[in-house]
Amino acid sequence: MQDTIVTVRIKGVNCHCIRGRENILVDTGYPGSLPALEEGMLEAGIRLESIATIVLTHGHWDHYGSLRELKMRTRAQAVAHQKDVDQIQEGRNGPLRPYGIPGRAAKLLGRKQPMQPSEMAGVEYAIEGEVSLEPFGVEGKILETPGHTAGSISLLLESGDLLVGDSLMGVLPWRKCHMPLFVDEPESQLETILKIASLDFQRIHMGHGGMVSRQEFYRFYERVKRRFL
Ligand SMILES: [Zn+2]
Ligand SMILES: [Zn+2]
């Protein structure tokens, strides 16, 4: 059976629910996203309480901000890369190094709004390396895709779906797929793009923007190769 992905977009952030033997939620949105998330999931026939695991693609508060609210409603346990766990548990965003002019603009526009201690939550599984999703009820694996942050991860599913968090972005109106607006580790980011190009996937689901086909990703990849490699 193929896993199906339900995407709920809240304030420009995509939360993805993977339906497997057990349901995995990938990213939680900003603090306060729970009501919209619950509504969007119910429209797809999924109860919030059915989420067994929450995978956080990286330690930015637009992705982990509602972790605490979710954990108070579900019995879900959180998974994140070891390198981003501290910033998640301390409610920080990390360095946010802007990439290009759109990144600098985003940094200027983005308000620094640290999480309140009452909004913070713990991570049960601090992972590193490649990790199978089988024990979490889904056919697939977690891969390290650093660059946007040191601990950015992606999920590659047997169904051909690749969920990349902010390792790729689709927020610029003139491009469906481009570099993240923040790249904390530029060299790792280029390696991550090469790694993604080597993977067997059909569709990419990003933290911001729409779904991207394999062909669309390769158009981006060719531009990156011309510019950097
Ligand atoms: Zn991010
Ligand atoms: Zn983001």
From TrEMBL:
InterPro entries: Metallo-B-lactamas, NDM-1-like, RibonucZ/Hydroxyglut_hydro. Transmembrane segments: none annotated. The keyword Lyase does not apply. One of its GO terms (molecular function) is hydrolase activity. Pfam families: Lactamase_B. Keywords: Hydrolase. Residues 12-208 form the Metallo-beta-lactamase domain. This is MBL fold metallo-hydrolase.
